[in-house]
Amino acid sequence: MKWFxxxxxxxxxxxxxxxxxxxxxxxxxxxxxxxxxxxNVFIERAFSGTKENFIAEFTKQNKAATVAIICSGRIVLSKxxxxxxxxxxxxxxxxVLPNANAADFxxxxxxxxxxxxxxxIRKQIIxxxxxxxxxxxxxxxxxxxxxxxSPNMSTDQLLPEYHSAFRTAxxxxxxxxxxESEAISAMNDTWMWKLKTRKLIxxxxxxxxxxxxxxxxxxxxxxxxxxxxxxxxxxxxxxISDISRMKEQIxxxxxxxxxxxxxxxxxxxxxxxxxxxxxxxxxxxxxxxFQPLKIVRDDSEDKWTxxxxxxxxxxxxxxEISLNKWLNELRRSKEIHDINLVxxxxxxxxxxxxxxxxxxx
Length: 361
Prior knowledge:
Elements: H1 2-8, E1 11-23, E2 26-37, E3 40-49, H2 51-59, E4 65-73, E5 77-82, H3 89-96, E6 105-112, E7 115-122, H4 123-134, E8 138-144, H5 163-172, H6 182-228, H7 233-260, H8 267-277, E9 283-290, E10 293-297, E11 302-306, E12 310-317, H9 320-331, E13 338-346, E14 353-360
Parallel strand pairs: 1-4, 4-8
Antiparallel strand pairs: 1-2, 2-3, 5-7, 6-7, 9-12, 10-11, 12-14, 13-14
C-alpha cells in the first residue's frame, strides 16, 4: 500500500479539500495534494470536481493520502451569539437552528471579543464522505468549518479557489482536528491499527526472507545428495551386479597384494579404501589397478616391479556433473599428489561417459 510505504519512508501525502455546495446532492470538491518529505512540504497538484470525478482524478496518480477537509457554502450554517451564552454543543446547535437535534450536527465555534461565531453542519454529509473515502485509501483526520489563516508559504502557483484547501492541509500538519467526529475517531483507530499491523507484517516479512535465504542455502548444499538418491529399482539391481563383480575383482587384487607383500596395513591401502568410499552413486567403477605390475625388459632378463603410490581407476557415469564434482573433491585431498583424467568418451547406445583416471600419492 503506497500510503503505508510513504509513512515508513518518512514521506506522506496530505490532501487538503474544500467541500462546498447547498446540500448532499449538490457538492463541489476543490483539492490540493501536498507531499511531506522530512521538514519540507511540496505542492504536487490541484484538481476539482464532483465527488465521483474528484476521487477518480486523485486515483489516476496516487493510491493513498491523509485528508484535511474544510466545509463552506450553504452546507454550513452559522450565527453570531453573545459569548456569555456559550454553552454545550446542544445549546450551540439550537442557537443556530432552534429545535434541532444536536446529535445530527457537527459544531465548531470561534470567540471574537464579546461575541462567538458558531458553525454547524449535518453529520450525514461528513460521515458519508469519511466512510466512503476510507475505502479508497483517503483517510480523513482533520475537519474545520472556519477558514484558516494564511500560512507563511507562497500560494502563487495556485488559483484562488484552491487557497482554502491548501491552508487547511498546512494547518492539519501541526494541529488536532477542531471538529470532533465519531466517524473520524473510528477511522483513526482503524488507521493506527493498520499502521501497527503493517509494521508487524514488515518485520515478519524480513524475518521470513532471512529464513528463506538460510533454507535456500541449505537446500543448495543438499541438492546434489538428494538428486543422487533418485535411482529406480532397475539401477539398484545393476549396482548389486556391479558389486558382485567388484568382489570378484577384489579377490583377484588380494592375491596380487599377497604376492607383492602388501597384505599388511599401510598408508597406501588406507588411501585406496578412502578413495573407493568417495565414489558417488552415479559412478560405476569397472576397474581398479593399485600399484600395478610393471615389466622392465632388458637384454638379459625381464624385471618385474610394482608402480608404488599409483592408482588407476576406470568406470562409467551417467552424470557428467557428478563425475566432475568427484574429481574436484579428489583434487582437494591433501593425500593426493596428482590426479590426471587419462581418457573420457561417451557411449552411443547408453549415453554413459566412460573414463579412466590415474592418481599419485
